[in-house]
Design a protein that fits this description.
Elements: E1 6-10, H1 16-25, E2 29-33, E3 44-47, H2 52-61, H3 65-73, E4 78-81, H4 83-88, E5 89-93, E6 105-110, E7 121-127, E8 130-136, E9 141-145, E10 150-155, E11 164-169, E12 172-175, H5 186-202
Length: about 200
């Protein structure tokens, strides 16, 4: 059952409450994560939107970066939205030289690809063959995917039509948009299903 899962939401910066609410609405135990000791018992981790360079610095400062990186690379299911996508990527374009990432997704992500905060917008995305109304805020996009990476979503229309904005690689899921800011729980449900499957293989 979903209630047997414990999903953490990295709570150093960004839209943490919205992700917690989305997960709990699906019957999942969801808790904020700020300390290395809170990572050990997780069945999954969500890395929220926010400011990726700030999040990167705080992960190092709070001692969370290395233990989280180890667990994710060892197979802990992870989902990142917007800045979270940047934090999961193996390569980041237009980031700061001292910015770190978890390197769990074999993708190249361009930071702030859609523009600044004032260029935030909403658009329809073709997500797994279905329409998904997505919110983009200083969003990245994916410029390269590795052979192992499944493209789940692209922008459906407009000047950015065809841009990759949702990907999955094994136990890692990422979107350039913010599903936690809408009432549509399909992305969170997909991640919960991924975490449940991963947990069932361990039990």
């Amino acid at each position: 059952m979903a209630g047997e899962l414990l999903i953490g939401v990295l709570a150093l910066q960004g839209d943490v409450r919205e992700h917690l609410a989305a997960l709990r609405s699906l019957g999942v135990a969801a808790e904020p994560v700020r300390r290395p000791s809170e990572i050990d018992d997780l069945d999954g981790i969500v890395i929220p939107g926010g400011e990726s360079t700030t999040m990167s610095k705080l992960m190092v400062d709070f001692g969370v970066y290395e233990p989280l990186r180890k667990r994710v690379l060892d197979g802990l299911p992870a989902y990142g939205s917007c800045a979270g996508m940047i934090m999961l990527a193996s390569e980041v374009l237009d980031g700061r030289p001292d910015q770190v990432s978890l390197g769990a997704l074999d993708v190249t992500v361009r930071r702030n690809a859609f523009g600044r905060q004032v260029d935030s917008f909403e658009a329809d995305v073709a997500l797994n063959g279905e329409d998904f109304h997505a919110v983009f805020i200083r969003a990245p996009w994916v410029e390269r995917v590795g052979d192992d990476v499944e493209v789940l979503g692209r922008v459906s229309a407009g000047p950015s039509e065809g841009r990759i904005v949702a990907v999955r690689q094994r136990n890692v899921l990422a979107t350039a948009f913010h599903p936690e800011l809408t009432g549509d729980r399909r992305v969170h449900r997909l991640f919960v299903d991924m975490a449940r499957r991963a947990k069932s293989t361990e039990d």
